[in-house]
Design goal:
Elements (H helix, E strand, L loop, with lengths): L1 H11 L3 H18 L5 H15 L4 H23 L1
Helix pairs in contact: 1-4, 2-4, 3-4
C-alpha cells in the first residue's frame, strides 16, 4: 500500500495539463514501445523505469518516477477491468 501511496503522491502534484501530457506519453509508450499492452509488459516497464531512476539526479529522477507511477496506475486500471 505504501508504494501505491507514493505513486499517487507523485501524480497528484501535477497540474491538469501536465497530467494530460503524461497520460498521452504513457499511451504512446505502451502503443509504440512495448511488445504488447498486457499487464506483464506494463509492469516490467514500470519496474525498469523505477530501477533506472535511482541513478539519476533529483530533477530527472522525479520525472522518471512519475512516468513509472503513471504506468503503474494504468496497470491498476487494467486489472480492475
Amino acid at each position: 500500500m505504501r508504494e501505491q501511496d507514493e505513486n499517487e503522491a507523485l501524480l497528484t502534484r501535477l497540474a491538469p495539463t501536465e497530467r494530460a501530457g503524461l497520460d498521452a506519453l504513457v499511451d504512446a509508450f505502451i502503443r509504440d514501445q512495448l511488445p504488447s499492452d498486457g499487464p506483464g509488459c506494463i509492469a516490467y516497464a514500470a519496474r525498469s523505469f523505477e530501477a533506472r531512476a535511482w541513478d539519476l539526479p533529483d530533477p530527472k529522477r522525479i520525472v522518471v518516477l512519475r512516468f513509472a507511477a503513471a504506468l503503474r496506475e494504468r496497470l491498476a486500471e487494467l486489472r480492475r477491468h
